[in-house]
Amino acid sequence: MAKIGFIGLGNMGLPMALNLQKAGHDVTGHDIFPAAVEAATSAGLRVDAAGAVHDADIIITMLPNGKLVLDAYQIILAKAKPGTLLIDSSTIDVASARTAHEQAAAAAMLSADAPVSGGVGGAAAGTLTFMVGGTNDVFAQAQPVLAAMGKKIVHCGGAGAGQAAKICNNMILGISMVAVGEAFVLAEKLGLSHQALYDVASTSSGQCWSLTSYCPVPGPVPASPANNDYKPGFAAALMLKDLKLSQEAASAAGASTALGSHATEIFQEFVSEGHGGTDFSGIINKIREKTA
Amino acid sequence: MAKIGFIGLGNMGLPMALNLQKAGHDVTGHDIFPAAVEAATSAGLRVDAAGAVHDADIIITMLPNGKLVLDAYQIILAKAKPGTLLIDSSTIDVASARTAHEQAAAAAMLSADAPVSGGVGGAAAGTLTFMVGGTNDVFAQAQPVLAAMGKKIVHCGGAGAGQAAKICNNMILGISMVAVGEAFVLAEKLGLSHQALYDVASTSSGQCWSLTSYCPVPGPVPASPANNDYKPGFAAALMLKDLKLSQEAASAAGASTALGSHATEIFQEFVSEGHGGTDFSGIINKIREKTA
Q: Domain residues for A106?
């Protein structure tokens, strides 16, 4: 069992840290927000800013963006023991993830980028998917630790490959949810029932996760957020964050992603109108609104 | 066993007619192209323009577009026996499909729109999916006949519902193939391997039929057309046809389908450049070409 520092005890980070503790690891947390510290303490997690860094064998970061990760790394790289394994589970831009790897290597630390999918529910249940970028040796060290927080741990390649896999996957997700929303709205206009379209598409070439797991109309998939007034689920603001990361990466790398860019605009408009907290499948309401 | 007239003995129609004959039906075919007539006769099908209409209990049409279906119906409605069941398995626009139903009803015929998915392979193997629009009574009569040509027969609703289901499904298909292509091209630019993206996306929220059945890069799905120089499979020209039908219907009905429209433009450009005979997954090459 390892001494683990966990930095970023938010909606995702706290349940992840508690699962590590439950698995027998010696976990010390840290967060800059007093409310997060209080919640962690109440849940039985030791919180100590210095201890989370100085004494750790492994330091996990779970922060909102690349700038905050690089800011945290300034302190971590100065204060942690050489040879410490740094795992960044934040979803951040590929460029910052690569910079974090380079800075870690320069400071004689080991590093992995390991963003997750599975949301708050997966974090609490310990069923997250981790997409990991880093060397084979680092992956071998990180794998058993990540397994205490997730069900599926995929080694995607070298530095940044975890972030790359996540944004490529989530770009498909964002586009396909808009596609499914447009198809249901067109079906409505053509007098085709939701259930009939679902029965055809879910078992043929239109099948996709957005349809069969997060169906944006109530009925066909009883557990989908559409049946619960579009409460997330996966908030539209997070979908937009990931789409924007995909477009930043595409733009920096010179990749043409016309539909990725278009879907980003569609979610941007939805979020700008105050629907960031709505499940991303609620985009169907935006599509319906544009329909004559 | 029924007397069946089969009009349109092309790449799809001929194997479908032969499967009906194999099931014991008394089938008479017709096609305006001498080459199609010759192929049908060689395959052992009786071909007789008058007989396919006058004596039939059921007349099936399998034609390239709505205008040709309505032209054929002019003759069929004048010459067939009252009470004949007319099944149009062509993929055509929803408006023409509804007109065909109305004209059939006015001539005291029964009618169903029943477009298929599954392609030439499914037509030969008798494993097509039929999406059927029509009354419950008509569906009950058509079902056993269609079952001789297909594996899955879905009653989608009233007049035109089969065509509506097909174009809504195929609009999702066209958009999601572009999405998957963009994701692989972005992955290439980010140094993420095809296999790594496939492993993540095929088992998480980016999963879709375009990825897991028609994967547009060679390797992850050995049977996909990408492994066979993008030989169809499902030709880009047919994907474009279905996307255009979806956009005609959306425009007529006033439905907003922004990504459907954008995907149509992307496939239009690909087909205009001479790639209509390429599998639709070849769109990834167009995306790659636009990438710097």
A: 3-157
Q: Which site among A242, A257, A262, A264 would you substitute to test the B interface, given the most B Cβ atoms closer than 10 Å to its Cβ?
A: A257
* Per-residue tokens: B33: 């192209």
**Which of chain B's residues have a Cβ under 8 Å away from the Cβ of A221?**
none
- Digit-coded pLDDT (tens) for B48-104: 999 999 989 999 999 999 999 999 999 999 999 999 999 999 999 999 999 999 999
Q: Which residues of B touch A158 (CB under 8 A)?
A: 191
Rounded alpha-carbon distances, angstroms, from residue A177 to A116, A202, A216, A227: 20, 14, 8, 16
Do the Cβ atoms of A204 and B203 come within 8 Å?
no
Same domain, A150 and A222: no
Say which CATH number the domain at B232 has: 1.10.1040.10
The H or E element containing residue A129 is strand A128-133
Catalytic-residue membership of B290: no
Q: If you measure CA to CA, which chain B residue comes closest to A210?
A: B205
Q: List the one residue out of A70, A144, A154 whose CA is nearest residue A115.
A: A154
Let me know whether B114 and B200 are in one domain: no
Please indicate, yes or no, whether residues A115 and A16 belong to a single structural domain of this protein. yes
ipTM of the complex in this document: 0.95
Domains of chain A: total: 2
The conformation of residue A173, written as its DSSP 8-state character, comes to H
Which of the following is catalytic: A3, A22, A151, A166? Answer: A166
Per-residue pLDDT of A165-205, as tens digits, reads 999 999 999 999 999 999 999 999 999 999 999 999 999 99
CA B229, A254, A182, B207: dihedral to nearest 10 degrees? 60
